[in-house]
TrEMBL record, chains A, B:
This is TetR/AcrR family transcriptional regulator. InterPro entries: Homeodomain-like_sf, HTH-type_TetR-like_transc_reg, HTH_TetR, KstR2_TetR_C, Tet_transcr_reg_TetR-rel_C_sf. GO terms for molecular function: DNA-binding transcription factor activity; transcription cis-regulatory region binding. Keywords: DNA-binding, Transcription, Transcription regulation.
Amino acid sequence: MTTARRDTYTPETLLSVAVRVFNERGYDGTSMEHLSKAAGISKSSIYHHVSGKEELLRRAVSRALDGLFGILDEPGATRGRALERVEYVTRRTVEVLMAELPYVTLLLRVRGNTRTERWAMERRRDFDHRVADLLKAAAADGDLRADLDTRLATRLLFGMVNSLVEWYRPQVGTGYDRQQVADAVVRLAFDGLRTAP
Amino acid sequence: MTTARRDTYTPETLLSVAVRVFNERGYDGTSMEHLSKAAGISKSSIYHHVSGKEELLRRAVSRALDGLFGILDEPGATRGRALERVEYVTRRTVEVLMAELPYVTLLLRVRGNTRTERWAMERRRDFDHRVADLLKAAAADGDLRADLDTRLATRLLFGMVNSLVEWYRPQVGTGYDRQQVADAVVRLAFDGLRTAP
């Protein structure tokens, strides 16, 4: 029975358990003991799959980062006017955040005590800079309000997008569907709450 | 010397030390020992001022909540068109958040394990509901975009405003001044990033 159970474990299922525990207890506050209990397998079984909790963290945040950076290579992000590209990237970022919610949540909570955490924060900043560059290009085209500082606008835009990890829950039948949330973010960010004059 | 030092301590200075430690270690992770070390006074001196760490938490989040609820009684929040009132409340919320940064940060991070934490979360939700009601009134006046769900818009608006606790730092001479940040939030939230057509 124990063997059977261990055999059903894949690196993928172990990863999803680890991400849940990291998000609940914080990465720093999670021990291999916690992971072993949550997964229902022995520590040595975990070591059969990964070198330790830092490898699990690296795999988890990589999944979030791959999702986010993947957006920047999509045609919608590389062709057309800068304003349309930044709108596209905003919408897709919201979609990836909702699709990979626990992974992006972990990425956003990482605080930089280990090399892997610092690497994740660095990559996350890279992504923010790529979007800030798009916003700058849109401003240079005259498509963004001239009275808004681009760097500040980028921070506020990401503040709004990233706040989703605090309240969006994907339960079927309750709350909002992904399309509705993505639409609302893009509309609020680019056109504002006020009725068009 | 010890006596002199203890005498200089007021409930106010003790509170500001406690809030800093709560924000660094989390409220759950903070012991009276940590507070005693950070304040440089004995635990019994702390008990001379307060009944324990829960009282410090209650005082700290009360300061944030008093600041926020105070806004709702100001003339700008009670007179005029709903849209103007909600713009006013948004701007003032940003200002209070920046003026009381550590206190509002603590309020936003509280997670509900003790009675005081649950009370703080309840009051915070009350505040959000009051602002949501204002947004609803503005929508009923036809002043908000009809294609945005009001509850979802409220969440996104607060998501953007509350994100300030993650990156806004009031160092003089660096970053943004308060006026600039408050202007940017109101402009982005109500008029959007896009150049007016």
